[in-house]
Specification:
The chain is α/β, with parallel strands linked by helices and about 300 residues long. The chain has two domains: about 1-90 and about 280-295, 3-Layer(aba) Sandwich (Rossmann fold); about 90-270, NAD(P)-binding Rossmann-like Domain (Rossmann fold). It is about 30% helix and about 15% strand. It has helices at about 15-25, 90-110, 110-120, 145-155, 180-185, 210, 230-240, 280-295; strands spanning about 1-5, 30, 40-45, 65, 85, 135-140, 160-165, 175, 190-195, 220, 245-250, 270. The strands form two sheets. A seven-stranded parallel beta sheet has the order 8-7-6-9-10-11-12, sandwiched between helices. A five-stranded parallel beta sheet has the order 2-1-3-4-5, covered by helices on one side. α2 crosses α4 (about 145-155). The protein is elongated, with a radius of gyration of 21 Å. The mean pLDDT is about 95. Bound molecules: glyoxylic acid.
Amino acid sequence: MTILFKPDPVVGGADAWRAQLAKRLPDVPFRVWPDVGDPADIHFFLGFKAATGNFAGMTNLKAVLATGAGVDGIFLAEDVPDVAIARIIDPWMTEQMAQWGLYAVLHFYRRFGDYQAQQAEGDWNELDPWRAAPARVGMLGCGEIGQEIGRRLADIGFEVAGWTRSARDLGDIENFHGEDGFASFLARSNFLICLLPLTEDTTGLLDAAAFSHLPEEAYLINMARGRIVDTDDLVAALDSGRIKGAFLDVTEPEPLPQDHPLWRMPNVRITPHNSGNTNADTAADQVAENIRRALAGEPMLNVVERGRGY
Ligand code: GLV
């Protein structure tokens, strides 16, 4: 029984995963891509991204264990074998992303970018505070991470709603759902936080047409995948003031090329896809438990619905 780990900068290196899994599954051989050895030995593929052909000859594969919260990277391979695919729901990642999301909203809400520009000029000047009261946050995507960020923003005074594909009870967070609810959800969201999975349906979802529904004072915060946003439409919307600012942890393409206009827009903040990296120290619990379950014929945790893509 062997694990094959495919490294990716977003999910931690092979040494960390090897060490953490060795503590939990001491006797299980751990191979690191591209040193696959005999592919028939591989029972578990552990990784963030795959490519067509990666699974060739893995006739004994029992499961694909994605090392991220999003599994779009696994489906980059067109030939993912017909085995269960699980994703990571990691408390450490949720915590990190909640901190990042709160900072991004507060950055614009309290005009920290404007004050930083003033500071560069030695300009002691009080700017107008937020006037479009109440400040409304829209969580686009309400899984564990989206709900957690939404609750925390509600705790510090924001009016929070969440959009989901079908109606959901989100407790204190108002729910908008489906295509019918999309425009009205956007229309009330000053701070639109994207946490959707990347699927065929969500690719390019946030384009000029979507932006046209946003209120006058609108900011985009993308912590999901760059391809959910039409980048050219975003640049145009930021240029025209249709969107006042964007905080992006993800871009299309990634890494963002050095000469891309987004880098130089004063109303844009960019971090390199690290709002919430997977931490092998904590995520290995779930991976080890899923290996145990798969071997015992029990259903794994956080299994992805293949047809849905998340
Ligand atoms: C990171 O982007 C993840 O999906 O975990």
